[in-house]
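Why should sequence recovery work at all? Because a backbone constrains its sequence more than one might expect. Tight turns favour small or flexible residues, buried strands favour hydrophobic ones, and helices have their own preferences. The token representation captures these environments compactly. In the example below, the structure is given first.
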């Protein structure tokens, strides 16, 4: 629905951005690998995410290798590849202590619980591209250490990776909710709204595209105040979507 967007690349190695860039990759991973005692673990489960204070959380099966080493309190190394548009060909290497937390039920199969395993970082390295060297786990290129306090800072909770994934999730999983909200706000029937896409979102605004009988439209929604947490971001976005007016101009083709 929207045109192809060019995403400006972030300065991955600039010291003022190290913590933010590292947390952004953690919030928007392409893939990951867990290594213990120099050996990659088989089927470590799901990289569930990162807490507001930088704790890495996994969901794994009770009989997995990750669960076994976590019960013994062993150290681990996690490689995380970036899916962030603004930090392509970048990755993280995170060293820390594996901590077995407990069980959580699988909503789709309650008889097969997951084990929750946390990794508490003790060292974080941001890995970036070196010219002419491919990006593989075997050939990690330029690296720079991320200050641990910066990586674990709560101010990075609404990072670029979280914002990218939030928009992707809303567009993929909440399309009917988006169509219904836009239709109600504009005083239209939901059948008149062919599709809605959150084109961009940040702490202060969001741009929303939709299709209707008149074609493609884009509207910039400015929040009444900057969002500070994920809950505030969701609330401010919903508030603005519900208070849109039909005084919009067509999207340029």
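From this structural description, the recovered sequence reads:
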């Amino acid at each position: 629905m929207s045109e192809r967007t060019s995403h400006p690349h972030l300065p991955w190695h600039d010291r003022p951005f190290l913590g933010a860039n590292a947390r952004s990759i953690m919030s928007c991973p392409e893939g990951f690998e867990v290594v213990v005692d120099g050996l990659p673990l088989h089927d470590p489960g799901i990289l569930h995410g990162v807490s507001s204070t930088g704790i890495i959380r996994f969901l794994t099966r009770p009989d997995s290798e990750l669960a076994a080493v976590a019960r013994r309190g062993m150290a681990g190394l996690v490689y995380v590849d970036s899916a962030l548009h603004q930090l392509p060909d970048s990755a993280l290497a995170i060293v820390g202590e594996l901590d077995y937390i407990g069980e959580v039920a699988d909503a789709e199969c309650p008889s097969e619980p997951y084990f929750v395993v946390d990794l508490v970082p003790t060292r974080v390295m941001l890995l970036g591209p070196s010219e002419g060297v491919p990006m593989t786990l075997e050939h990690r290129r330029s690296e720079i250490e991320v200050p641990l306090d910066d990586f674990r800072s709560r101010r990075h909770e609404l990072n670029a990776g979280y914002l990218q994934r939030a928009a992707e999730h809303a567009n993929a999983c909440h399309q009917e909710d988006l169509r219904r909200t836009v239709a109600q706000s504009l005083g239209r029937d939901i059948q008149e709204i062919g599709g809605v896409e959150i084109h961009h979102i940040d702490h202060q605004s969001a741009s929303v595209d939709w299709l209707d009988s008149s074609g493609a439209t884009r509207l910039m929604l400015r929040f009444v105040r900057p969002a500070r947490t994920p809950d505030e971001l969701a609330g401010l976005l919903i508030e603005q979507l519900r208070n849109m007016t039909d005084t919009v101009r067509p999207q340029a083709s």
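A few observations help interpret the result. The chain has six helices and eleven strands.
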